[in-house]
Structure formats: structure tokens, C-alpha cells
Amino acid sequence: MNEFVTARTDFATAAKGGLSPAELEAVLRQVGAERYHNRHPYHHRMTGGDLTRGEMQAWALNRYCYQAVIPRKDATILARAEDPAFRAEWRKRIEDHDGEDGWSGGIARWLHLATSLGLDAEMVKSERQALPATRFAVGAYLSFCANRSLLEAVASSLTELFSPVIIGERVPAMLAKYDYITEDTLAYFKKRPDQASRDSDFALAYVTEHADTPERQQLAIDALLFKCDVLWAMLDALQHAYAESGKNIPPGAFRPEDAR
Ligand SMILES: O=C(O)c1cc(C(=O)O)c2c(n1)C(=O)C(=O)c1cc(C(=O)O)[nH]c1-2
């Protein structure tokens, strides 16, 4: 199974007649095992205690762009879904991020994480100092969910199957290895594993039910590969710009104190 997924060959069509739901789930989980951003060197440097404070700030600032686009992409998905029961379930995601008034949900908690690291809230919210590649990656995710089929858009959210794993690696390491990080800084992550499990259970059931031909199964697998690339590209961009004392920081992007 390994080489099929890694090589991006047509896995589902190669299995003549397609995959059973359990086999499709196994391939999707394998994509995560091979491609999720917990395998990225920037994540390993974070959990190893090796990021400078400036690199930690750059991560929070750039990840804000991702957090901010999530409810917009979920609203795009909502607008395209014809089934009221689907919409009733999917809209919970928007509520999670926006809260009741826009600033009492996940986006506000991410902003708190960023400001706890010493960043200015307005600067973070403006997204002006994010890396070019962050903006492109986040924009690609939004366009993907607007332009591809509903099945592909739902399948692209399935990285959430793996987010409890990375959160479980990240949070204890951040608390242990960086003296300026506290439980309060990381409050964002308290609610996420439960929310992500609820969301990914629903999305996985949808995908295994609706990916009912080999071609549709392959589209679902490719959507998840695409999304792993989005997350990977965001960490690649951070690594390129901020490792080695910020040698490759693009013009106009955030310049930490320790990389001046
Ligand atoms: O901490 C992480 O590494 C991580 C990863 C992901 C993901 O895998 O896409 C999400 C989140 N966090 C997250 O907090 C979140 O709200 C979220 C929504 C989605 C999505 O695609 O709809 N992914 C993620």
C-alpha cells in the first residue's frame, strides 16, 4: 500500500473495482501517517525545544492566516451543501471558530496565543507580515473548497483526523521546553481534540459513503494529499525564512527581534 500512496499513483483505480469503505479509510489514514505535518522538521525543532522565540512568533503569526480562513472555507462548503442535515452538522465548525460574536471562538483563542508570545494583535490580524507562501497555501485551500466537488472539499478537511496526534506532541513539549509558554498561552488547544474528533468522524463517514466509485475514491485520496501539502508548504516556508537567523526572510515579512 505504501508505495502507491507515496507515488501518487491511482490507488483506488489500481484496486480494480475500488476499495471497500474500510480499505478507503485505511488508505486515508496512511496518507496522514506518511504526509501529515507532524513529520516536518520545523515541527520536530519545535517539539525538540530548538525554535528561537522569533521562530515561535513567526509560526503563530503565520498560522493565524490558516485559522482565519477556516470558517470562510467552511462557509463555502456550507453554501454548496444541499442536505439540511449536512449543513446543521457542518455549521458547528463555523461556530467553533467565530464564537457567538466573532471574537469568542477559536480565532480569538489563536490571537491570544499570538499576543501571549509578545505579538501585537492588530499586526497579527492584518496578516500583512505573513510569508508569501503562507498566503498562497491558505488561498489555495479556500479555492480548492470553492471549486472542487463537495466530496473533495469534505475529504480535504480530513487532516483533522490526525490533528489530535500533533497537538498531543506539541503541547507538552512547548510547556516543557520553552519557559515563556504557559497553559494559558496554549488555551486554544484545550478544545481542539474533541472538536476535531467530532468533525473528522462526520467527515470520514461522509467520504466513505459518497466515494462510491474508484474514481471518486481517488479524488478523495488526492484531496487529502493536497491538504497535507498545504500544511507542509506552510512549515517549509517558515523553515526557509526563519532558520539560520532569519537569513531568508522575504521583504515585508515579520522580522523577529532575535533575527535583526
Ligand atoms: O494544530 C494543528 O496542527 C491543526 C491542524 C489542522 C489540520 O490538520 O488541518 C487543523 C487545526 N489544527 C485546527 O486547529 C483547526 O481548527 C482545523 C480546521 C481544519 C480544517 O481543515 O477544516 N483543520 C484544522
UniProtKB/TrEMBL annotation:
Gene Ontology molecular function: pyrroloquinoline-quinone synthase activity
Q: Name one GO biological process term.
A: pyrroloquinoline quinone biosynthetic process
Q: Which pathway does this polypeptide act in?
A: Cofactor biosynthesis; pyrroloquinoline quinone biosynthesis
InterPro entries under this entry? Haem_Oase-like_multi-hlx, PqqC, PqqC-like, Thiaminase-2/PQQC
Which superkingdom heads the taxonomic lineage of this protein's source? Bacteria
Q: Name one Pfam family in it.
A: TENA_THI-4
Alphabetically ordered keywords of this record? Oxidoreductase, PQQ biosynthesis
Give the EC number(s) under which this enzyme is classified: 1.3.3.11
Q: Which residues form the Thiaminase-2/PQQC domain?
A: 28-236
Catalytic activity reads: 6-(2-amino-2-carboxyethyl)-7,8-dioxo-1,2,3,4,7,8-hexahydroquinoline-2,4-dicarboxylate + 3 O2 = pyrroloquinoline quinone + 2 H2O2 + 2 H2O + H(+)
Into which EC class is this enzyme placed?
Answer: oxidoreductase
Q: Does the keyword Cell membrane apply?
A: no
Tell me which family the UniProt entry assigns to this protein.
Answer: Belongs to the PqqC family.
Q: What does this protein do?
A: Ring cyclization and eight-electron oxidation of 3a-(2-amino-2-carboxyethyl)-4,5-dioxo-4,5,6,7,8,9-hexahydroquinoline-7,9-dicarboxylic-acid to PQQ.
NCBIfam families found in the cross-reference section: PQQ_syn_pqqC (TIGR02111)
Q: What is this protein called?
A: Pyrroloquinoline-quinone synthase
